[in-house]
C-alpha cells in the first residue's frame, strides 16, 4: 500500500510541505506502510518506542490495560491522525498503552529518531516538519487536559454534560456526532456502560437531549450544566 501524497499533504504532520518534499521525507525516514486487520495490535504495551504511526485508512483505539486485563479507552484516532509521538518524544523506554486497529486499517510507520534528528542532507523542510510535530504534541496535551476535565466530574450526568457540551462547542451546533459507541463512551468516561445508558435515557425523558446511536442533539440547558453550555442556551 503506497501512501497518497495528496492525502498526506492535508495531514497535520505534513502540512505546508510539497508532494516532492513529502516523498523525500518518506525515503529519508525509512517510512513503511502496513495493513492491520480489525482488533490487531499495531503497538503493544511494553514494546520499545521506536516508531510513530499515521493512520492512512481506517481508525485505531489507544487503550490502557490494568493488571487484570481491564481496558480503558484513551482515545480514538482516525485517518490523518498520529499516534505514539508523545511517548517517543518523552523518550519512554516502553509503551504504557496499546494501539489496536478498530477496523481494517492502513498505517504509515516512521522512525521517530530520524524524524527529530536533522538528516545528513540538511533538508530545508526538516525544521518545518519538526514544527508541525510540536504543534501536534501541544494539541494532544490540550485534548488530554479536556479529558481530565470530564473525568474529574463526580457523577455520570456531569461527566456526560461536560463531554457533550464540549462536542457541541467544537461542532458549533446543538446537533453533532460523537466518535464513540456506547461502550467506547463509557470506557472513555470511566463509567459502567449500563449506568451510562440509564443516565442518557433519564436525560432524554427530562427533555435535556435527544440521541440516536452516535448522533446527539442538546435541547435545553440543565441547571447543573457546565459553563461552556452558556453559548448554546435555547432562545
Structural notes for this entry:
The protein is α+β, with helices and mostly antiparallel strands and 235 residues long. Helices cover 38% and strands 22% of the residues. The mean pLDDT is 87. The radius of gyration is 20 Å and the shape is elongated. A four-stranded antiparallel beta sheet has the order 1-8-3-6. Strands 2-7-4-5 form a four-stranded antiparallel beta sheet. A three-stranded antiparallel beta sheet has the order 9-11-10. The protein contains eight helices and eleven strands. It has helices spanning 5-9, 19-28, 85-89, 112-116, 126-152, 156-171, 182-189, 193-205, and strands spanning 32-36, 41-43, 51-57, 60-65, 71-77, 82-83, 98-101, 105-111, 175-177, 209-212, 215-218.
Strand content: 15-25%
Helix content: 25-40%
| Distance, first to last CA | 51 Å
Low-confidence parts lasting 5 or more residues at pLDDT below 50?
A: none
Q: Calculate the mean pLDDT score and round it.
A: 87
> What radius of gyration results from the CA coordinates?
20 Å
Number of strands: 11
Q: Count up the helices.
A: 8
Strand order of the largest sheet: 1-8-3-6
- Give the overall shape: elongated
Broad structural category:
alpha+beta
Largest pleated sheet: 4 strands, antiparallel
Amino acid at each position: 500500500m503506497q501512501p497518497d501524497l495528496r492525502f498526506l499533504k492535508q495531514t497535520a504532520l505534513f502540512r505546508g510541505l510539497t508532494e516532492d518534499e513529502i516523498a523525500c521525507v518518506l525515503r529519508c525516514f525509512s517510512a513503511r506502510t502496513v495493513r492491520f486487520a480489525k482488533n490487531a495490535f499495531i503497538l503493544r504495551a511494553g514494546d520499545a518506542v521506536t516508531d510513530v504511526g499515521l493512520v492512512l485508512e481506517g481508525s485505531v483505539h489507544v487503550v490502557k490495560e490494568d493488571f487484570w486485563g481491564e481496558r480503558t479507552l484513551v482515545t480514538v484516532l482516525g485517518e490523518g491522525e498520529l499516534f505514539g509521538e508523545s511517548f517517543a518524544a518523552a523518550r519512554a523506554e516502553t509503551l504504557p498503552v496499546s494501539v489496536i486497529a478498530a477496523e481494517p486499517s492502513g498505517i504509515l510507520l516512521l522512525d521517530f529518531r530520524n524524524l527529530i534528528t536533522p538528516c545528513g542532507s540538511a533538508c530545508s523542510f526538516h525544521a518545518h516538519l519538526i514544527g508541525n510535530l510540536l504543534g501536534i504534541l501541544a494539541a494532544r496535551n490540550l485534548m488530554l487536559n479536556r479529558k481530565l476535565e470530564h473525568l474529574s466530574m463526580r457523577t455520570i450526568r456531569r461527566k456526560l454534560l461536560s463531554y457533550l457540551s464540549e462536542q457541541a462547542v467544537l461542532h458549533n451546533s446543538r446537533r453533532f456526532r460523537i466518535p464513540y459507541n456506547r461502550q467506547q463512551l463509557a470506557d472513555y468516561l470511566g463509567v459502567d456502560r449500563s449506568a451510562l445508558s440509564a443516565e442518557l435515557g433519564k436525560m432524554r425523558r427530562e427533555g435535556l437531549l435527544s440521541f440516536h446511536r452516535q448522533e446527539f442533539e442538546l435541547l435545553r440547558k440543565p441547571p447543573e450544566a457546565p459553563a461552556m453550555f452558556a453559548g448554546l442556551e435555547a432562545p
